[in-house]
Amino acid sequence: MRKFLLTTLLGILLLIVAACGADGGDSEEVAGDSSGDGGDGGDFTFASSGLYPPFNYSDNDKLVGFDIEIGTALAEEMGMNPDPVTNPWQTIIAALNSDKFDAIIGSMAITDERLEEVNFTEPYYESGAQVFVAEDNNDVTSIDDLNGAKIGVVVSSTFEENAKEYTDEVITYDSDVTALQDLLVKGRLDAVITDQLVGMYAINENNLAIKQVDEPIYLDQMGIAIKKEDEELLDKVNEALQTIKENGTYAEISEKYFGADISGE
Question: Where is the Ionotropic glutamate receptor C-terminal domain (predicted)?
């Protein structure tokens, strides 16, 4: 009798295990079907330093700015969920190539050196490398006065390389905001080289007592950086970028931050 009961219980247990196995197989198949939807949907994770107002910065612990809104518009155009994140600027390309995010939308200038490591979309705006000094600084009145000066720049930026053409005293910062504020500390800096729009924003919106010197040193074209091997995403972002320029979304975002369309088109 005991043997019969054990045999019966063993049989019931085997039936339960078999049933669970069948259910598990069905669940796995459904999961596989949901991921094979042609690449639509999902998150579009894009990175910036988060320290570059008005392009990308934190406001009440939320990432905001021109770059963030452009990235959000691109994600929505591609049918994806926007997921903006931050990463230190000096390691941002390495982080992209380590699959920490899908793209860099952080006002990154397109350079030959960077093109060796990543691909860039078509430029999404153009701006100039501008010299700024304290409002009461009358010693630096032209680009020629930068020779031998103490110049502040963001680390690993194109501005850092440019500053080294004028002086050995290049002081690097994680944030343009901090560099510009240091112009007001006597004896700390003679000048800062940064994006013209960033400096003008600090003057107009933050009432920082600084002024621009001369015309821009040069113009940069800014692109969205994407991994070399991700050509499909590059094409999708380029297509979405063209669409938001044509349908007025880009211009609306640009007008909000700069009072003009900075696309150059």
Answer: 43-260
Q: In angstroms, rounded to a whole number, what is the distance separating the alpha carbons of residues 170 and 180?
A: 14
10 Å CB burial of residue 205 (0-12, 13-18, 19+) is exposed
Helix/strand/coil percentages in the chain, nearest 5: 40, 25, 30
Let me know whether 131 and 216 are in one domain.
Answer: yes
- Judge contact between 49 and 87, C-beta under 8 A: yes
Q: What is the pTM of this model?
A: 0.78
For residue 265, the surrounding DSSP H or E stretch is none
Per residue in 68-110, pLDDT (tens digit) is 999 999 999 999 999 999 999 999 999 999 999 999 999 999 9
Q: Please return the burial class of 171, using the count of CB atoms within 10 Å of its CB with bins 0-12, 13-18 and 19+.
A: middle
When divided into structural domains, the chain yields a total of 2
Phi and psi, residue 195, nearest 5°: -65, 140
Residues 120 and 134 in one domain: no
Q: Domain of 164? A: 127-220
- How do residues 181-193 score in pLDDT, each as one tens digit? 999 999 999 999 9
